[in-house]
Amino acid sequence: MRGKRFRPWSALLNGYGLLFLAFLYLPLGLIVVYSFNANPINMAEWTGFTLDWYATIFRGASTEGNFDAAFTESPERIFGVIRNSFLVALCAASVATVIGTATAIALARYRFFGKRFYQALLLLPMLVPDIVLGIALLIFFVGAGIELGLMTIIIGHITFLSSYVFVVVSARLAGMDTTLEQASADLGAGPLTTFRRVTLPQIMPGVVGGFLLAFIISLDDVVITYFIAGVGSQTLPLFILAMMRRGLRPQITALAVLILLFSLTVASIGLILRNRKS
Amino acid sequence: MDFLQIVSASKHYQTPEGPPVKALDGVTIDVKNNEFLTLLGPSGCGKTTLLKCIAGFEDLDSGDLILGGKSLRDVPAHRRPFNTVFQNYALFPHMTVIQNVGYGLDVAGVAKAERDRRVGEALELVGLAGFGGRRPSQLSGGQQQRVALARSLVLKPKVLLLDEPLSALDRKMREAMQIELKTLQHAVGITFVFVTHDQEEALAMSDRIAVLSQGRLQQLDTPTGIYDRPANGFVANFVGTSNLFVGTITARNGESVTLETANGRQLRATGNRFQIGDQVRLVLRPEHLKILAPGEGPDRDGSVIQGRIKETVFVGSTIQVHADVGFGRTVILLHPHDNRNAQREIAPGAEVRIGYAAESAHLIAVADD
């Protein structure tokens, strides 16, 4: 189908479109360029191509060369916090997916007292400012005498990630034909069998999408995690934030590019899965 | 012995604003074993609600469903020995045809070898052998319809419930499926309860028809019974085309009665249910009305109505004639199409005498509406 033509405006519109894309992607492009710049002091000045900054992430700083050891973290530290981040994201996203999916089904398929109110309460964690949620969780954990650590981060993340999964799965459920579930019951399947063999396969793209979204959000959460992380339980974003306090060093740009690559991969897998299912 | 009894079934729905709507209002039907029963009515008459209540997707407010002497009210849908063919077929899109048809058997724990055999038989029965590996989205509407039928029939239900299953098909396919469904019902010997708003479909397929309107059962009878002896004005108008005259009975001689309309029209009919002075409705079907040749009298004790042809509609085997019979009334009749006859007198503007036989005039009490 051909769109409408705005001949006198088309050049202007195209220009605007390109500008907007530049606005979106120029900073990201810049960080990628910087991560390959050999200049260790001033990133804005190109002095040659290097992979050294990536090498420091995996091998640590070598003793010779222009490395500033004080500003370079060891691979053990980096992979320690990456492991923490993945552990938190995996656990929190998994639990949130179960809770969010179950809630979405309850709200989409059953009638019960206070349903509207319940629905509003579920969406609230997404709207409450992160800093308020972070402080609230901290007060709760301290008050309840729970020692801060990876477990408190996981619990904290589950509270708001469940809302995101709920929204994504609800959208999928709303588009599902409810007579499929009736047909399953009609053919003799009990509620559990119907869920396992009809409802779940139908909403699977939503469930997977909700999980991936929750995973990514958990992976880069700073504000809430900052409040409820214990001393020995730093996550990757907190770690980078701490590194930044000592100045923007090339190793950080290399780390940022690796995180960017990972996020793009996860998002692509999500999209591919979604297209294949539908 | 009664098979499935629907006893004073009632159900209402709460509307967002205003009073509750009665979807079913004291409907009682005894469904016989192995019959093809059609629930017929306009949209909103309660026919689909009744079907859902039988299937177990909805609960009755009051009344009962009794199968073989036992109430079904506390039996959930997945434990009732009924299966449904849905209006949109509701085939599982993520399963193949074989998996769809085998679903009920699989859930019931039937072993794979037995299951494969029965699925094969069911697909054979609906003429879809060889389509087992396909997904529903790779099938035409008619084929999906057959898969839905096979999926239900493979479980050998006591009753097969069909919710307007032909409405999504085009006319040719629909007519073919009507015959096929009827043949299938004879072959499998299962009771069919079929919901439709299409009166031609109901007449063509059913052993008995239950006509519903506004949640109430209007008439339960054979197709010919419904057509020839409609119980009230609603049935007379909804099933087929009717010419209705309201009048008071002025004379009665044995079976032969005469009624007079408010316009002074004298019309004769046959019946013994009514007395002189009763208000009645006279039902005349278009095919029972005949344009009389000059000098010809009406058949067997009937009457003659004077009219002028307003419009003729050629429908193939017959010509539908709309005739103005005075006092603002139009009568519809079917005139046989025969190209050897001079058709000149059957043209708009022609004065005609319309006759009918007294025995073809059916009487309804006005109070029955």
The biggest beta sheet of chain A is recorded as: none
Strand content of chain B: 25-35%
Q: Please state the second-level CATH architecture of the largest domain in chain A.
A: Orthogonal Bundle
| Overall geometry of chain A | globular
Q: Which structural category fits the helices and strands of chain A? A: mainly alpha
* Class by alpha and beta content of chain B: alpha+beta
Number of domains of chain A: 2
Write the layout of secondary structure elements.
The complex is a heterodimer of chains A (278) and B (369).
Chain A (H helix, E strand, L loop, with lengths): L6 H29 L16 H8 L15 H35 L5 H13 L2 H14 L6 H25 L4 H8 L4 H29 L3 H6 L7 H9 L5 H28 L1
Chain B lengths: L3 E10 L7 E11 L4 E5 L6 H9 L6 E6 L2 E2 L10 E4 L11 H11 L4 H14 L15 H13 L5 E5 L7 H18 L2 E6 L2 H7 L2 E6 L2 E6 L1 H6 L4 H6 L4 E11 L2 E6 L4 E5 L8 E6 L5 E2 L11 E12 L3 E7 L5 E7 L14 E6 L5 E4 L4
Parallel strand pairs in B: 3-8, 3-9, 6-7, 7-8
Antiparallel strand pairs in B: 1-2, 1-4, 4-5, 9-10, 11-12, 11-14, 12-13, 14-20, 15-19, 16-17, 16-19, 17-18
Helix pairs in contact in B: 2-3, 2-4, 3-4
Provide a short characterization of the protein structure.
Chain A has about 280 residues and is mainly α.
What distinguishing features does this structure have?
heterodimer; A: 278 residues; mainly alpha; 11 helices; globular; B: alpha+beta; Rossmann fold; OB fold (Dihydrolipoamide Acetyltransferase, E2P); six-stranded mixed β-sheet; five-stranded antiparallel β-sheet; 8 helices
Characterize the structure shown.
The complex is a heterodimer of chains A (278) and B (369). Chain A is mostly helical. Chain A has two domains: 1-26; 75-275, MetI-like (MetI-like fold, Orthogonal Bundle), CATH 1.10.3720.10. Chain A is 73% helix and 0% strand. Chain A has helices at 7-35, 52-59, 75-109, 115-127, 130-143, 150-174, 179-186, 191-219, 223-228, 236-244, 250-277. The radius of gyration of chain A is 24 Å and the shape is globular. The model of chain A has no long low-confidence stretch (mean pLDDT 87). Chain B is α+β, with helices and mostly antiparallel strands. Chain B folds into three domains: 2-81 and 157-237, P-loop containing nucleotide triphosphate hydrolases (Rossmann fold); 93-146, no CATH class; 241-368, Beta Barrel (OB fold (Dihydrolipoamide Acetyltransferase, E2P)), CATH 2.40.50.100. In chain B, 23% of the residues lie in helices and 34% in strands. Chain B contains eight helices and 20 strands. In chain B, the strands form four sheets. Chain B has a six-stranded mixed beta sheet with strand order 6-7-8-3-9-10, with helices on both faces. In chain B, helix 2 crosses helix 3 and helix 3 (112-125) crosses helix 4 (141-153). Chain B is elongated and about 75 Å long. The two termini of chain B are 32 Å apart. The mean pLDDT of chain B is 87. Chains A and B meet through helix 7 and helix 8 of A and strand 6 and helix 2 of B.
